[in-house]
Amino acid sequence: MDVNKNFLVGVFEDEDVLLAAVKKVRSGGVKIHEVYSPFPVHGLDEALGYKRTRLPIAAFLFGLTGTTLALTMQIWMLGYDWPMIIGGKNFVSLPPFIPVTFEMTVLLSALGMVATFMIVSDMKPYGSPRQFDLRSTEDKHVMAIDTDANGGKSKDEISRLLKEAGASEVNTKSFE
């Protein structure tokens, strides 16, 4: 998020009203910066026009990396670096490798997805989050509209559109 941004913030009481408001505001030609909700609202992604996420592809690639690393590590350690024949099995026997391979796959998938989510969401451990309305974490739904990105519409027009769409209140928020 850039510095010196000015936003109009619409506060909504109900998720059904919010969903209808998103459709109405977008059909009115207003670009919505983001919608914040204390719980998931079914259909909000489609209403905002978001594309399907590619995070499952990243999860698969992290899991594939974990599987490859686990098998490579075990085959190298037990097959070439320190070969042991245990129970008459060959030096590279895959069935005993399955538990470690599974655990390494799950570990790298989980850690990779946490890191990917934090990078994509711009969540830095040294920064503080910008909140448009503190009540968005409790019981209110908040729609943030960047007034600079909607150059053709005035603040009064956007405020009126938000009120008509069902916003219980419309506030101005600036970040510097």
Automatic annotation (TrEMBL):
Species of origin reads Chryseosolibacter histidini
Protein name per Swiss-Prot or TrEMBL? DUF3341 domain-containing protein
- Locate the transmembrane regions by residue number: 57-77, 97-120
Which keywords does the record carry?
Membrane, Transmembrane, Transmembrane helix
